[in-house]
Design goal:
Elements: E1 8-12, H1 20-29, E2 33-37, H2 43-56, E3 61-65, E4 71-74, E5 80-82, E6 85-88, E7 93-94, H3 99-102, E8 108-111, E9 116-124, E10 127-134, E11 136-138, E12 143-145, H4 158-169, E13 174-177, H5 183-193, E14 199-204, H6 207-211, H7 213-219, E15 222-226, H8 227-233, H9 239-253, E16 257-260, H10 275-287, E17 291-294, H11 296-299, H12 304-319, H13 335-350, E18 355-359, H14 364-370, E19 378-382, H15 385-390, E20 397-401, H16 409-422, E21 431-436, E22 448-453, H17 454-458
Parallel strand pairs: 1-2, 1-17, 2-3, 3-13, 13-14, 14-15, 15-16, 16-17, 18-19, 18-21, 19-20
Antiparallel strand pairs: 4-7, 4-12, 5-11, 6-10, 8-9, 8-12, 9-10, 21-22
Helix pairs in contact: 1-12, 5-7, 7-9, 10-12, 13-14
Amino acid sequence: MKNYSKTKIIATIGPSSWDAPVLKEMYSAGMDIARINASFADFAELERVSTALRATSPRIGIMLDTQGHKIRVTGLDHEMMIEGEISIPNTFNITYPDLYKDVSVGTRILLDDGNIQLIVKAIQNTEVICTVTQPGILKPNKTVNIPDVNLNFPAIAEKDRADIIFAVEHKFDFLSLSFVRNKEDILAVRELIGNSGIKLIAKIENIQGVANFDEILSVTDAIMVARGDLGVEIPFEKVPILQKQFIYKCRQAGKPVIVATQMLESMKEAIQPTRAEISDVANAVMDGADALMLSAETSTGKNPVVAVATMQKIAKEAESVLQQSPIYGHTSAPEEVDELCRNLCDISESMKLKGIVVISNTGQTVLSLSRHRPNAPIWEISNSLERIRQDSLLNGVTGFFLKDLPQDRDECTQGAVEVIYAQGELDLNDKIAIISGSSIRHNTTDAILEIVQVKNVLSR
């Protein structure tokens, strides 16, 4: 297997990248998970692209990113200068018809990611009259943000409901939920998906999501720090601080965290990133992110494969100077598993272990272990391709498929080591750690830890 970075790479699929040869090159360059943005795709396109991804490799995780409660300019068929005093809906309309009910005099309205700024001057019946404080040219379908107001949206938009059902029926691996405000938004989706097993990623990109971060983290499977809208909704200088705080809290909870938006933005056109973008990617790695996401760089950019390869190169270099960083705080795993995983990081360092093999039915051990960012790679053995794809989001984790996991523990560990050895990851003299389930009946905790030499396992 190729020596990829421990930090995972999510690439958005679009017109620049959805052809099969490009997908294969992106996968070879280091793409772990493919994101499809439902805002710009109908069901036919979702099915076509997801089928192409599955044909590229059954290891690629597929993420559907919902549109969420995104407000956009509508009814505008040409660009226009916005200045002076304007009226909504007379100057232009937006996809939120009840605006006049929710805003008041002094409310800020931001257009096109904040490039155009308005202040509500008066409300006359259904008309919202605004003073333009930051003029600019408005193009059709641009975004509208109203950061100071809790708008009256349902928990799940109708388009999102249909897209979520599609993702479940087509066995996508992740659902990325836009504009999550509170835990109720996550719980509503959990009720909709039932026991499908699809993993939920809460995108933090508005004031409510920031204020309710802890409760959202408690009910979601993962977090995405979506810096685009977040930097519009809150003062942009706060975003780097929140990024670091959110990453640390996610690691404490043993839940993966993604950093997204404008990471290599210039590579939409350029063949190389700016020095600032290189620093941004490296700093996200050093902050402890599980994964980094490319958006327009790979969906509509000129160099999607190069963008993936560039992010991979930067992440690997940043990781080369990192030390393991055990972290405190309990995950969903039993307390003894958390303690075992924390101490194993020190053991792996002091004994120079080649890797850590995890054989687990629940996946809790891998979650707990990954958050400590050990220098040794984590090799997860599973008989579920779905688990392997979903855990491809976790920092430092590589999944290995073993169709039949023997009930006998010795046979199981031997089979696990054999499949890793066959991929060229191990030499016979290497020392590894193996974590597996307890041999005590009715004890579901992964409690057995062995330090072994590879040749001794393979000669059993």
